[in-house]
Amino acid sequence: MLVVDLAVPPEMGGSGGATNPEQLFAIGYAACFHSALKLVASRSKAAISDSAVTAEVSINAVDGGAFQLAVALHAEIGGVDQMTADRLAEQAHQICPYSNATRGNIEVTIDATIG
Fold first, then answer.
1. Cα separation of 52 and 26, whole Å?
2. Burial of 42 (C-beta count, 10 Å sphere; 0-12/13-18/19+)
3. Most CB contacts within 10 A, which of 2, 30, 68, 102?
4. Is a pLDDT exceeding 90 seen at residue 31?
5. For the residues 31-40, what does the mean pLDDT come to?
6. What would the DSSP string read from start to end of 2-68?
7. Cα(47)–Cα(17) distance, rounded to whole angstroms?
């Protein structure tokens, strides 16, 4: 069980100062994408030495007073060249359940760096 104090984010008129649902979404998306990344690396026999994924979730106002999410995924992949890192990140985006759930609904950008 996860117990957290929740607050409305400043972007939606709240005071912030505590965890908000968008942060929880970012944690879930990053973890899920990381699992997908490890899976595609394993399937393609890419010997990654280390990896990490961060997700930045932003809230954007849209017409009519509604809000929409946008996500920037950042994958750090060690032990491979840049072309391989880019390919693995794109393949992970194709199989990640969060990516598939959000595809066509919100803007998602992906970048990969090597390290």
1. 14
2. exposed
3. 30
4. yes
5. 98
6. ----B---GGGT----SB-HHHHHHHHHHHHHHHHHHHHHHHTT---SEEEEEEEEEEEE-GGG-EE
7. 41
